[in-house]
Structures are given as structure tokens and as C-alpha cells.
């Protein structure tokens, strides 16, 4: 089962089951993660910065392609509500979407 390590959440390891979206796995692991549109791919608040293992996230979805074209999703970012994890990856929460009640590491 692929593992996502969240670097700035104290190296929290999230196991992602096959056919499970990353946002769902993060929630199941007990981590609060911003997703203003409810995980429907209509915003970019659930984005994650991928530091390593981008190739393990599969192809970009139509919403992700749209946001890339608009400049709202960088080359090293993905929407957690849209993508699946096929191999281990290392990511971090963007500064803009951190929650004030959550403790983050460096």
C-alpha cells in the first residue's frame, strides 16, 4: 500500500489504499486538511506540494489541468481530492492553506 509522508506535519505517514483519493486517506488518518469545495475539484484549497514521488500520483485530472492552465496549480502541486497515490510520495501543506488550530513542523 503506498505511503504519503507529510513533511511539515511531523513526518506523518498516511497509508493510501488502492482507488482511494489522497484527501480521503488524509482524513481517515485523522489529519485536518483544507477542502473548501467539499472535495469536488472546484477550488484549489486541498492542494499539496509534492517534494518527491510526483510520478506516483498518476495523470492530471481535467480540473487539475484547468488550474494549471490558469496558473493556480504549480508544477509541483496536485489536488488531493482528485489524485490517487500509486507509489510512495513526500508532500507538505502549503502555507496558504494551513489551519490555525493545527500544529506544523518545519
Textual characterization of the structure:
- Residues 12-85 form the 2Fe-2S ferredoxin-type domain.
- GO terms for molecular function: iron-sulfur cluster binding.
- InterPro entries: 2Fe-2S_ferredoxin-like_sf, 2Fe-2S_ferredoxin-type, Beta-grasp_dom_sf.
- It holds the Pfam family Fer2.
- This is (2Fe-2S)-binding protein.
- The protein is built from two helices and five strands; from the N terminus they run ββαβαββ.
- It has one domain (3-95): Ubiquitin-like (UB roll).
- A five-stranded mixed sheet has the order 2-1-5-3-4, covered by helices on one side.
- With 106 residues, the chain is of the alpha+beta class.
- The longest helix has 8 residues, at 62-69.
- It has helices at 22-28, 62-69, and strands at 3-6, 12-15, 47-52, 77-79, 89-92.
